[in-house]
Amino acid sequence: MTPSRNPVEGGTLTAMTGILPGPAGPASSTAGPAEPALVDRAHLLADIRSTLAATGGVLLHGPAGIGKTALLDALAQEADAAGEPVLRSSPTAAEADLPHLALIDLLGETLPALAEELPSHLRQALECALLHRAPQPGAATDPLAVRVAVLETLRRLAQRGPVLVLLDDTQWLDAASRQVIAFAARRLTDRRIRFAVTERTEHADAAPTMAALCPPTARDLPVGPLGERGTGALLRERLGLRLSGLTLSRVHAVSGGNPYYALELGRSLTADGSESALATDPARPLDVPDRLRALVSARLAELPDAARAALTVLAAARTGTGLPDTVTEPLAAARRHGIVRQTPTGTPQFSHPLIAEVVLADATPAALRDAHRLLAALTADAVEQVRHQALAAEHPDPQLAARLTRAADTALTRGAPGTAAELLRHAAHHTPDPDTAGRRLLAAARNAAAAGLPDLARACGERLTIAPAADLRVHARLLLTRLLGPDHPGAEALLAAAADDTGGHPALTAAVHQERAVRALHRGDRAEGFAELETAEKHADHADNPDLLVELLALRAPITLLTDPAHGRALLERGCRLAAGRPPTAAAVLCREGLAVAALRSGDTPRALAEVESLRTEIEAAGRTEDLANVLYIAASVLERAGRSTEAYAAGRAAHDLRERIEPTPGPARVLGGAAELNGGTAERAAQLLDSAIRAAEDGHDNEWLAYAHGLRGRAALLLGNLPTAVHHLTRCQLLLRHLQFNDPSVFLVDADLAEALALSGRPDDAAATLADARDRAGRLGRDVVLLGLHRAEAHLTALTDPRRAADTLRALLPAAHPYPLELARAHLALGTLERRARRRAAARAALQDAHARYAAAGCLPWLRHVETALASLDALEADPTPTQQQILGLIRTGATNREIAATLHLSVKAVEANLTRLFRQYGVRGRAELAKYQE
């Protein structure tokens, strides 16, 4: 896949203590119904399953709200679906003193069905413990009898099939039940009864204490926080809240990756609409809802004034800031209350990020200003110092605004456009002149967009739509239009308002026509798009605006590459010349990306690699997140075609993670994730991601990404051996590319795969037509680099009638090297398949071993596994057909049915079927029709 243009866990909290250690926490509350399916916990859940299978027990531990209960819910649902009984107990703090309560939860409903199987004295002891029977007056229940009765009950259950025992929140487990369960767990080691136990610990690294409730061989697994990506997915799936950029980072940081806290903070954002306020003022504390605030407010209220003031300074400081004794000494009281802890380096740190947010939210404006004033005096870094000065200032200050602007320039040289955006926003606030303030705010918006902070960019842009200067209003509306995306219904109104404000100014008029061109090209209306571009170029020439001309060339050139590669490359080179020596812009980056793509499509892989690797280094150093997402996307494509699959996998995963954070829709990110899996992951995982990408792209009406998703899904289907699915997706990919007028066969290598899938599916006419069309387009555009793939597909077509001739022809066409090494590996794989069908096993093995070596050198894991399976199948074949099998072959060629063959050879029908199965494997065919074409 190479781009044609720039595509413009959780679970409920069963008890809300745990954020602060110690007995003084608030009382617990019982959780409600289980949340929907887990988010971002697939790997952990797989570890739990494998641990249960291997050891019979797992102890999950971590802080409150981290998602332990949700993991048990998932295990319970799986067991229910498999028809396995589930015994579960979920005690609370209020029930910790009620004896045998957990046993009542576990066995109360099960005991009546098993009672008659237990000896009478054990049955009576257990019935008394479970309150199913009143004890005899004056007779005490024998504790040992209860323990043995529970053990025997569980053993009898296990005799009927696997049993899953789930013990949640065992820190509240009553002592009597704990002793009984530990007694039984030590003796239940046959794996038919599995124990999954959860225990609340202060943090994931704290040592658990409830291992005795599991079998002796059990393992403990910490349940850690979600990553930022997982937090975003949780909020999207649970609340429909799509956070991105700085707002998501804030929610993730404050929640500490705790799913419960993140959901509570997300609900607060949606309830009071403070998401937009956060974007406008990133330093603004989150509105911590009462249910979370109650966890810490009581302890904060107990602190002396000096300690609370010191906590405000600590909360406002950047991590690692050296604090004086006047701040650290009053924090001793906070340490005693578990609010602050010491890091290994001896510096104070909040025991949970949520506490810092409550401290900031509760601090008075004067206290916050004092804290920032102190921090400004403590730091020697000019950028950090002036940021604190801005937060400490009470009134607009032109001199402070000038220092903030200079600090923003410094931040940009450090590759931190996000920091520059924040500083420029402060500078605008402290600038009395409305025009200068507006230009600083526009610069803040543009830097925020470049840093992948669309919420901050949008907030700044919306303030500028009422700016006094017309050019500021036009640029703000164009920025907002781009942030909305090409399909958003509100974009047209913004564009119309921007056009009305241009006043005939050539540069502004050119910018409006440029945006209209982008939208037309996205719709697939190339004629209108090129017309808008021509109009924009005339106005840009008249305005003598090189940067705008570079932007227009960056739009036109990739499309021109599709029909006239030489002219498209010339346009890109002109754009790079115009941009040389000027500050880097997104358009200049696009021109350089385009040159890498043009080189790749022509087969000049070394130049493509050099261009994209140089560009990636520069963009990463500049901290331009949005540009980096595109560069990583192209880098992954270039690395894949260059046969460097391990690096392509890493770049693709990085592109997936970035786009998932900054894209308004998830389709592109999941396409890139699927492509990465086809390089260094698994075909199964690729198929899952790409199915999701297809749904997202269909919902978003994004035909380009939809085409790529279908094409990659077709490749995954080929790897998985599902030809009908492969034909469906590859056909959809080709049709969508044609609709987009992407006729260059090197844009996406779909033609050879489609022709191969059609041939192997018994559709020779369709395969031949696909090949003829692809060869014609490759010839017209000079794309000789795709011919090897077409040779490979044609060999599969020829093999339908003559596999030996197909193999001989393909072998003669194989080059010693190829610009796309994986295409050469694929051709050797095809040769091995053809040689096997031609019954030349030594030649088949040699070709497959060659393919294996090439895929191994590239690090292309899915295709490497595919070749290993083919080699194993080849090694398992019998040397030659037996005399009986040779007779069966002869009768098949006459059209005889299995029953007729059985009658002729005096065999059973099952014997005929078994021999046919072996012949199918031996010849590498899928059915009788293909087998009948082989000659003796």
UniProtKB/TrEMBL annotation:
<dbReference type="InterPro" id="IPR016032">
    <property type="entry name" value="Sig_transdc_resp-reg_C-effctor"/>
</dbReference>
<dbReference type="InterPro" id="IPR003593">
    <property type="entry name" value="AAA+_ATPase"/>
</dbReference>
<feature type="region of interest" description="Disordered">
    <location>
        <begin position="1"/>
        <end position="33"/>
    </location>
</feature>
<dbReference type="GO" id="GO:0005524">
    <property type="term" value="F:ATP binding"/>
</dbReference>
<dbReference type="Pfam" id="PF00196">
    <property type="entry name" value="GerE"/>
</dbReference>
<dbReference type="InterPro" id="IPR041664">
    <property type="entry name" value="AAA_16"/>
</dbReference>
<dbReference type="InterPro" id="IPR000792">
    <property type="entry name" value="Tscrpt_reg_LuxR_C"/>
</dbReference>
<feature type="compositionally biased region" description="Low complexity">
    <location>
        <begin position="21"/>
        <end position="33"/>
    </location>
</feature>
<dbReference type="InterPro" id="IPR027417">
    <property type="entry name" value="P-loop_NTPase"/>
</dbReference>
<keyword id="KW-0067">ATP-binding</keyword>
<dbReference type="GO" id="GO:0003677">
    <property type="term" value="F:DNA binding"/>
</dbReference>
<dbReference type="Pfam" id="PF13191">
    <property type="entry name" value="AAA_16"/>
</dbReference>
<feature type="domain" description="HTH luxR-type">
    <location>
        <begin position="870"/>
        <end position="936"/>
    </location>
</feature>
<keyword id="KW-0547">Nucleotide-binding</keyword>
<dbReference type="InterPro" id="IPR011990">
    <property type="entry name" value="TPR-like_helical_dom_sf"/>
</dbReference>
<dbReference type="GO" id="GO:0006355">
    <property type="term" value="P:regulation of DNA-templated transcription"/>
</dbReference>
<protein>
    <recommendedName>
        <fullName>HTH luxR-type domain-containing protein</fullName>
    </recommendedName>
</protein>
<dbReference type="GO" id="GO:0005737">
    <property type="term" value="C:cytoplasm"/>
</dbReference>
<dbReference type="GO" id="GO:0004016">
    <property type="term" value="F:adenylate cyclase activity"/>
</dbReference>
<dbReference type="InterPro" id="IPR036388">
    <property type="entry name" value="WH-like_DNA-bd_sf"/>
</dbReference>
